Amino acid sequence: MITGRVLVAAALLLAACGGDDGPVSRAESVPSRATGPYDVERVVDGDTVRLTNGDSVRLIGIDTPETVDPRQPVQCFGEEASEYAHELLDGESVYLELDPTQGELDRYGRVLAYVWLPDGRHVNEEMVAQGYAHEYTYELPYRYQDEFQAAEADARAADRGLWSPDTCAGVTS
């Protein structure tokens, strides 16, 4: 069940700071429009996490190979993508940044957000840059689309992760 705590906190913060892009003291590169911290309860897969407040969060702008969809087999490099998400997020508190161009919830009721670690790392971008996720545009361009596309191009050029000819060569279906 979606608690709405993340959405309410995000709306209050955006109203208070006018959506300012500037850094805040908690971490130099976590945008001030991000809310949190929120404790990660568990990593569902490479692009979805569950918070201890009950919210499920779908990371905007990325798609990782499937591992938990009962309608399809585990996709190439899916286990590795999930494991990397575990490395980044297990036991962490995170900050969430919403993007008004993407809506607040997906069709499954998950909060759509960018996830930031307290040290300023952008989890969504990190997953793409290290070759664990495809850049993914659902319908409309999103805030970090150019950065994610550049990160994917770099991962492809370096044969990193799912782009390696020894893994999937980018084919995950």
Which keywords apply here?
173 residues, alpha+beta, OB fold (Dihydrolipoamide Acetyltransferase, E2P), 5-stranded mixed beta barrel, two-stranded antiparallel ribbon, 4 helices, 26% helix
Structure description:
This protein is an alpha+beta fold. The chain has one domain: OB fold (Dihydrolipoamide Acetyltransferase, E2P) (Beta Barrel). 26% of the residues lie in helices and 24% in strands. It has a five-stranded mixed barrel with strand order 3-4-5-8-7. α3 (123-129) runs parallel beside α4. The longest helix has 13 residues, at 5-17. The chain is globular.
CATH topology descriptor: OB fold (Dihydrolipoamide Acetyltransferase, E2P)
Mean pLDDT: 87
The CATH architecture can be named as Beta Barrel
Q: How big a fraction of the residues is strand?
A: 15-25%
Sketch the topology as an H/E string, one letter per element. Answer: HEEEEEEHEEHEH
Give me the number of helical elements. 4
Query: What is the distance, rounded to the nearest whole angstrom, between the alpha carbons of the first and last residues?
Result: 30 Å
Could you tell me the number of beta strands?
9
Q: How helical, in percent, are the residues?
A: 25-40%
Strand order of the largest sheet: 3-4-5-8-7
| CATH class assignment | Mainly Beta
Main sheet properties: 5 strands, mixed, barrel
